[in-house]
């Protein structure tokens, strides 16, 4: 179609939905997906995502890869760069994957749960009108990034400088390693004594008691960091 943008594809989307046996009520959902995929450009190609790195970039109006397009294309609609052909194949694929209501389309490439973006792309933000913070990671924009981070902390009720990493087991691991090292030294010492030809004899019960005492000590250390009281 002539012109630019997404709305010009509305009649083609309606026709593609009909040919795929899908409801015309899905037209706006599909148009939203087109907007996030290609912005309405049937010649769009993605040269930076995981598909491109694997050698099969996403192409066309609905950004399908060659293998998907070829598997779901309609007879006589063989041109991935033709917007309508691409649309037919993409909707056929989406119907098989998401069902006849196309649940999953129309949400774009959202980041409702956050994330870090490293490549240029179209993104759907503030999904369902939920506010989000977008923080630049460019060092040249450090002051702006810190300003937004500070505002984010205030909104979330997090005091400045109080952000902590949860479930850090490094201290527990260090303590356990110390206990293991001590036990190893004790075993080496006992072995050296037993190997010497002397009148010093250590019974098996004494070795068991010493080892059990050391093990109990280790258990108490582990339980302490788990919040468990040991006796």
Automatic annotation (TrEMBL):
Signal peptide location: none
Pfam families assigned to the protein according to its UniProt record, in alphabetical order: SLT (PF01464)
SUPFAM superfamilies: Lysozyme-like
Domain Transglycosylase SLT: 15-114
Extent of Basic and acidic residues compositional bias: 212-222
Organism domain of life: Bacteria
Disordered as annotated region, ranges: 212-231
PANTHER family listed in its UniProt record: CHANNEL_COLICIN DOMAIN-CONTAINING PROTEIN (PTHR21525:SF9), MOTILE SPERM PROTEIN (PTHR21525)
Protein name as catalogued: Phage tail tape measure protein
Organism: Heyndrickxia camelliae
């Amino acid at each position: 179609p002539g012109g630019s943008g997404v709305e010009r594809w509305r009649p083609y989307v309606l026709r593609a939905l009909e040919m795929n046996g899908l409801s015309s009520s899905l037209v706006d959902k599909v148009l939203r997906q087109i907007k996030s995929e290609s912005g309405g450009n049937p010649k769009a190609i993605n040269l930076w995502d995981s598909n491109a790195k694997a050698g099969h970039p996403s192409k066309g109006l609905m950004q399908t890869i060659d293998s998907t397009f070829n598997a779901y294309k309609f007879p006589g609609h063989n041109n991935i760069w033709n917007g309508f052909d691409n649309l037919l194949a993409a909707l056929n694929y989406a119907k098989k994957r998401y069902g006849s209501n196309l649940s999953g389309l129309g949400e774009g490439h959202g980041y409702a749960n956050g994330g870090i973006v490293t490549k240029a792309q179209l993104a759907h933000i503030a999904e369902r009108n939920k506010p989000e913070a977008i923080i630049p990671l460019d060092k040249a924009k450090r002051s702006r990034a810190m300003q937004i981070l500070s505002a984010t902390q205030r909104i979330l009720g997090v005091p400045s400088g109080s952000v902590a990493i949860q479930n850090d087991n490094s201290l527990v691991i260090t303590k356990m390693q110390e206990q293991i090292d001590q036990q190893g030294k004790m075993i080496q010492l006992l072995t050296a004594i037993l190997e010497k030809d002397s009148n010093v004899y250590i019974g098996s019960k004494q070795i068991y008691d010493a080892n059990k005492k050391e093990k109990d000590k280790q258990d108490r250390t582990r339980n302490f960091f788990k919040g468990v009281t040991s006796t």
